[in-house]
Write a structure and sequence with these properties.
By secondary structure, this protein is mostly beta strands. Helices cover 4% and strands 14% of the residues. A 13-stranded mixed β-sheet has the order 1-2-3-4-5-6-7-8-10-12-13-14-15, with no helix packed on it. Strands 9-11 form a two-stranded parallel sheet. The N and C termini lie far apart (79 Å).
């Protein structure tokens, strides 16, 4: 057996070897061992003459719930048939995956001790049996995936303890417009929100005005009215595909000056929405599988040169009853090239 001092020396030297990734989790190894200070890096001995082995131990906790897979600050407890949040979750945890279990309730103390997370904490609790959004989420949470549950209501103040969220995924719940209480998102700064495959008949009111992406696909939305998009001036991607939209009120899109991508495919539109030429940054428009019968020469591009700041690189119009041979070439004068336009054949 190697002497203790020699083993410790070899461990210290190994820190200088090139990094070689051998497994999926290896990308997080830079969090595993502490950096050596100048004295330790130079090989100086401690007062006892033997390197301090404690300085080489990982900084993360070794706590891991039974049956779960834990590595560094990731705790994966998905697909275990759990009926409750497991105990002994390390306070170092930054990603907690509880997806596809049988959890029907989150208790007040389920996340006790996780309030001091300091690097991008995430909670994945999709595909369970939750009937409400847990009111006791860690204040430092930045990503919440709670889709495919049984949530029907978003009460006022449920996100009040969260200030700087990046992503909330809450689709696949039987949410109706009446299920969003006024003030449900008050004070929340959020970049990405998806409420797909729900029971929405319109764009919910009072969503966070900080949104950069809003996805409401696969719902029952029938129209976009003038005030629906009034507060979302920071949106650069809007997903409204697979709804029942027949009408977009004139001027509704004028509140989206930074919009770059618009999904309106698989709806019931009979014409190209008005206002597209005024969106100077718009580059992608999905309008396929609608009832559009005519495309005008100024439906997409503004009149005059230098008005549009970014040219289109994708316009889809296939599966519409548009006689494409009647569309004037000048209609797509602000498109990067002809390959960016997709007409296809319409078959009733």
């Amino acid at each position: 057996m190697l002497p203790l001092w020699l083993l410790a020396s070899l461990l210290a030297v190994s820190q200088t070897l090139p990094f070689e990734q051998k497994g999926f989790w290896d990308f997080t190894l830079d969090d595993g061992l502490p950096m050596l200070n100048d004295e330790e890096a130079s090989g100086a001995e401690t007062t006892s003459g033997v390197p301090d082995l404690d300085s080489l131990t990982p900084t993360f906790s070794a706590m891991c719930p039974f049956g779960c897979h834990c590595h560094l600050r990731v705790v994966q407890c998905s697909d275990l048939g759990l009926k409750a949040v497991p105990k002994e979750i390390s306070p170092d945890t930054t990603l907690l995956d509880l997806q596809n279990n049988d959890i029907s309730e989150l208790r007040r103390d389920d996340f006790k001790g996780l309030q001091h997370l300091y690097v991008s904490p995430k909670l994945y609790i999709s595909k369970n049996h939750l009937v409400e959004i847990p009111p006791n989420l860690p204040s430092s949470l930045v990503e919440l995936r709670i889709h495919d549950n049984r949530i029907r209501k978003v009460p006022k103040g449920v996100f009040s303890g969260l200030r700087h969220m990046n992503c909330i995924e809450m689709g696949g719940n039987p949410l109706e417009n009446s299920g969003f209480e006024p003030g449900a998102f008050d004070g929340l700064k959020l970049n990405y929100l998806r409420i797909s495959e729900a029971k929405l008949t319109g764009i919910p009111k009072d969503l966070p005005e900080t949104l950069n992406e809003l996805h409401l696909d696969h719902n029952r939305i029938q129209a976009i009215e003038l005030e629906d998009l009034l507060r979302y001036s920071k949106l650069y991607r809007l997903g409204l595909g697979h709804n029942q939209i027949r009408m977009i009120e004139n001027g509704s899109l004028s509140f989206l000056p930074t919009l770059r991508e618009l999904h309106l495919d698989n709806n019931k539109l009979s014409k190209v929405p008005s206002g597209l030429p005024d969106l100077k940054l718009l580059q992608v428009v999905y309008l396929h599988t609608n009832n559009i019968t005519k495309v005008g020469v100024n439906d997409f591009c503004p009149v005059g040169f230098g008005v549009k700041r970014a040219y289109y690189n994708g316009i889809s119009l296939f599966n519409n009853p548009v006689p494409y041979w009647e569309v004037q070439p000048a209609t797509f004068r602000c498109v990067t090239d002809r390959l960016a336009i997709q007409f296809g054949n319409y078959k009733k």
